[in-house]
Amino acid sequence: MSTTSAGSSSIVRDIERVSPELVQAAGKFQAAILADVNGRRGAVHGRVKPLNPKMKVAGPAVTVEVRQGDNLAIHAALAVAKPGDVIVVDGKGDVSCALIGEIMATQAQASGIAGIIIDAAVRDSHELAAGDYPVFSAGLNPCGPTKSVAGTVNMPISLGGTTVRPGDLVVGDADGVVIIAKEDVERIVPLAQQKVDSEAARIAAIKKGDGRAKWLEKALQDAGMLGEGEAL
Known about the structure:
The chain is of the alpha/beta class. It has a single domain, classed as 3-Layer(bba) Sandwich (Glucose Oxidase, domain 1). The protein is built from 7 helices and 10 strands. Strands 1, 2, 3, 4, 5, 6, 9 and 10 form an 8-stranded mixed β-sheet that branches. A two-stranded antiparallel sheet has the order 7-8. The N and C termini lie far apart (63 Å). GO terms for molecular function: metal ion binding.
């Protein structure tokens, strides 16, 4: 049965994207920094990881939902995605067969697509991990997919427990993937820079011998681990 009603389309071609300028500004930060300043929200389940820890990607999401084991909708996304986009696939965490391999990744790279993130399995992992094109997945499997079941392109999805809407910012690196709502990116960028500066200052202080966090004793008291006025 189709996932859409008769006469309706499950492929949305025109979406509002986070701007290239904001992608560039946010993409210089670690996914961890962005997740922290986003209220510790937006991080995708840790099963979704880069095939090579050196891989990093940032760009607006082209969202795809598929039935487990079928990649028909991913082929549609490859056809409608624009240069700089990141294809983000809700594969339900299923790793019983691969949804993409070297051929589809090569097509995506040749089309200018910034990267592919799939909550499912991929194959040809040796070739993909040895290359410079960012591919993130939930696992590996040599079995290939079917191409016969309707999915959706550029509709809201859930990626590893995190909501992703078309055009939202996607940033992935060695730690995993974070999603930032497109309307929040402009606000998040200066907060990310402030956190980077704060962490750099803290690391410098630690290296000079100031090893104890100044907030620790109050936090322990608030949690009931230390009594009022008690110190470590």
